[in-house]
User: Fold these one by one.
Assistant:
Number 1:
Amino acid sequence: MERQRIDVLARQIQAGFTEESAVRQSLEGRKFLTPKIVDLLVACAGEENVFTAGAELEKHSQDHSHHLPCSPEMVIYARSTEMISGIMRICNSHRVPVTPCGARTGLEGGSIPVGGGVSLDLSKMNQVLKLYQDELQVHVQAGIKKEALNDYLESEGLFFQVDPASNPSLGGMAATGSSGTLCCKYGTMKENVISLTVVLADGTVVTTRRRTRKNSTGYDLTHLCMGQEGTLAVPWLGFVKVTPQPSGESSLRVSFDSLQACSRAVVKLKQAQLSLSRVELLNAQSILSLNDSQKNRANPIQLEPVPTLFLQVHATSAALAAQELDSAKAIAETEGGRSFVLATEKEEQQQLWDLRRGAYFACQSNRKHLVARGATDVRMLTTDVCVPLSDFPALIEETEEDYNATAEETGIRFLCNIFGHAADGNFHCCVMFDHGNAKEVEVLHQLDRRMWARALAHGGVVSGEHGAGMGKVSALAEEWGTDAIGVMWRLKKPLGPTQRTALAEPGCIVGTLITAQTEQLSSRAMLRQGSGVFGADSLQGLSTRAPLQSDGDRDSDRRLSGAKSEALQPEFSVCHASLSPSLLRCLDEHEILNPGKLLPSGTR
Ligand SMILES: Cc1cc2nc3c(=O)[nH]c(=O)nc-3n(C[C@H](O)[C@H](O)[C@H](O)COP(=O)(O)OP(=O)(O)OC[C@H]3O[C@@H](n4cnc5c(N)ncnc54)[C@H](O)[C@@H]3O)c2cc1C
């Protein structure tokens, strides 16, 4: 892919990106909860479920991502639908942001309560309500974790077929449109959730559909609530599909001499329509990290440090599984696959897949290299992109090349661990970095943005399964186009209030637009357009009132019309929502923010 084109796209994404420290600075000292609101929430949720200080706040200030922690003002453990409905109603009417969370295993910061307010934890709502054997469906509460559900299903000869390498809640998985290693055969959460019962910002409880196999009336509200990352509704209950445990299961590990050959084999394997349940690829660096992480174990496993495929077949009999795996082996050989390791026994397979699941944690072994050169604040960037399968070999090769070329140009060499769900065209890139080294952070951000840009240029998306969270919002306009973002806004608007809403957490999809709106209207703003800023003319009419208070009496329409507002002067201070030109155009076209005033004439 042409470097120049990628650079342009990456710069467009960069233009919409705001440093997290600036976000934090702009939000510092903001409080949404008054003693009166605290009393209302305690009365609704019960004292035993509400925390306003101590370890609970700290726990809920972060997830598994590299994003900086940010404390909520209150943590509430949800226990019933009535309670969630009441909390949402109170928060909504007092403009208190609510960030729902499940197991907080997210990798894009979606459950970090950046705006403060309430962290609504659904992890205690973790019951299986009923198994429907005939239809292969189970009715569960959203807080149940994947492994707990599988423990329950095992005795029934069933399993839940969406299998991320983490142990998240089903509500979190639905909210992020999660998938995992079994996606190749069984699909993502989007294919496996039949119906959800959700609570909207105003407390309304809606069931998105009945649990029949088919339904041809009405809009598809289930899918509207999938992948919305808590910005639209809070799912607390759902019907999901389950699958009988396969009678035949076999696995295979294959080594390749090049990443290209390895990823070309993936394309051929997928085209062959075998019963492959898992097709996972690890690059040479990931294998090195795995080897490193094994070193201190009693019986360390050491693999040849070359690109490697982990394959698995699920079939109706052991004989059929063996036959299918033979076909897979033959296909891999045509692309130079070698050093085959077959695993048919349960224990052997367990060992093979434990290795693959360990790939994420193995990256932590890279930490010591950074510490050795003096790094004190080591973090891990974990990101995922997804492209049509035919573009997968090119994308993965270009990504490795970019990391190598950047090391030559800048002298900064990152250990780039690439692994992922290859048959879906989806891979993760995990890189340890020194957060205290500004130059290093900048170079890594550029590499990361170029990877997103490359995925977009190949017809792909900036995240196949982790969501936008707070990390990838700046790329959404480039991925979706401004019209689609506008449609999302129009769907969001009637479901929640027009200002910062209970669900409009900064950094989350449409929530970003809403937050941008309130921030732009409530503080002096710096609106970047590429390297420049807008002049005073284009900012005429924007209000500069004090930051929002939690009194719930704001009239956003009055403020949108600019009535009683003070025009901005051509002096700027940093606002946490500096927007990319594409997003600005979107806000402008859809009259979201001060219609017609944001873009200088001639640029619309
Ligand atoms: C080691 C490791 C491996 C991983 N592997 C995979 C993988 O293979 N595939 C994959 O898809 N992901 C993977 N992930 C990422 C993560 O596990 C998923 O994104 C998961 O779906 C998050 O679920 P959670 O319950 O932890 O949600 P949280 O992290 O708590 O929240 C994630 C988002 O969902 C929202 N949310 C959570 N619950 C609700 C609810 N009930 N209602 C409304 N919104 C809600 C939150 O506001 C937030 O925006 C991995 C993470 C780790 C640490």
Number 2:
Amino acid sequence: MASLDLFAGENHEVTQFSEQAYLLHGHVASQADTILSHLRDVIKQSPLRQFVTPGGGKMSVRTSSCGDFGWITDKKGYRYTDTDPITKKPWPPMPETLKTLAEQAAAKCGFESFSPNACLINVYHPGAAMGLHQDKDESDFSQPIVSFSFGLPVTFLWGGLKRGGSPQKVTLQHGDVLVWGGPDRLRYHGVKKLANGQHPLTGNVRVNLTFRVR
Ligand SMILES: O=C(O)CCC(=O)C(=O)O
Ligand SMILES: [Mn+2]
């Protein structure tokens, strides 16, 4: 893992963990209070829920979305929708502050034209995990994924472009931002089971936001 000169002068450390995958340590930590309060508003409108995968299993993570599109799964498959299947209303708008922060993080990593129209909210309680998968329900893979993490730390798994092999392990802490795109856009990734813990801002959970161009 290398630190990049590209980011010299920034306060936060950056780790490049593959060709176009970057960990911006603590990058949104100072905005966490604001971001989490926006999320509370979103979740009041479109509640967290445990989706069922096409295979019939219930996901351990609790999910909602904001933006023009939200990611869903049910027996029919994985996809984006413009309305929340629970409320039957459009997904809550993506708060401008969140969109701007995600765009700025992408731009720092060389993705200047990123303008996300979907933000997936994942809330992990202890024991929740996400298996290795690709983010491939979007239509433009030239656009990166930008991911914010809050609350309890977790081990993020960074695999290859195909299944198999042993993934790299990257610890994600409160306020960390991941950006991946270009040749790394379709990498398999996931998170290990969340361990018990307490965080001053989130209690016993980890919150993850992924910003995408649907
Ligand atoms: O929780 C994370 O860090 C990753 C989430 C993820 O990969 C996804 O929602 O597709
Ligand atoms: Mn993913």
